[in-house]
Specification:
mainly alpha
Length: about 70
């Protein structure tokens, strides 16, 4: 699955729990990168890459991914 396929896939095809978990992970990654809420284009790119990795790759529980980003 290419990145453009993932971008075209509507978020509604993901379950609400998946969307919330992906959003939490994306927020944590953006915080670690120092991206503010105003940097929408860069935040969107991070979110798309996280979604692509989730949809196209091995699925690790998101709490394991986000655990390394918390203090």
């Amino acid at each position: 699955m290419s990145e453009s396929d993932v971008q075209d896939r509507p978020a509604s095809r993901l379950g609400i729990r998946e969307r919330l978990q992906l959003k939490a992970v994306a927020d944590a990654v953006c915080a670690e990168l120092g991206l503010s809420d105003g940097e929408r284009k860069r935040r969107r790119a991070v979110e798309q890459r996280i979604r692509a990795a989730y949809l196209g790759g091995r699925r690790e529980p998101l709490y394991l991914v986000s655990a390394g980003l918390q203090d």
